[in-house]
Amino acid sequence: MDKRVAGGYSDALFELASEEKNWDSYKQDLLKVADTLKANPEMMTVLAHPKVTKDDKKAILTTVFENEVTLHILYFLKLLIDKNRFGGIFDIVKAFIAQYNEAFGIVVAHVSTAHALDEQERADLIKMLETKTKKKIELVIRVDESLLAGLRIKIKDEGLDNTAKTRLYRMRNTVDSAVL
Which of 17, 21, 114, 129 could pair with 137 as two cysteines, CB 3.0-4.6 Å apart? Predict the structure, then answer.
């Protein structure tokens, strides 16, 4: 879906959330919808299939999400079906989350680590990053055992790589250049 189209739908949804002062609920509901669709790709296939009637698609949405999301989100999903835009749901969710984060001063930090972080390590990392960025931090953590130790952090276009794997690589290059 074109970013402008996704942005338009996201803007309308964000405006509705603003009128209700219910941003968090909308965000959680949209994430729930996206997670459900990602976990069930066959459902997304049916909802995007041109031979499945709009009424059948809306019935599926009602069955799956009626007790899971607010009525406004359910109606929004049905509107996307009516407008043949449901295939862009992930782009719309992404645009809404970006708008939400911008409005509330939240920065997403993508962290790769060699082992799962415990609650104290998470809290310490968030505190350190919030001090450094002067913004609220939302962590997205991925465990990658090949890193051996340390962290790799990416915020927007900036990165910090303090993993053992990278340090060993740098050391090897330093030794290689010194030997030659």
Answer: 129
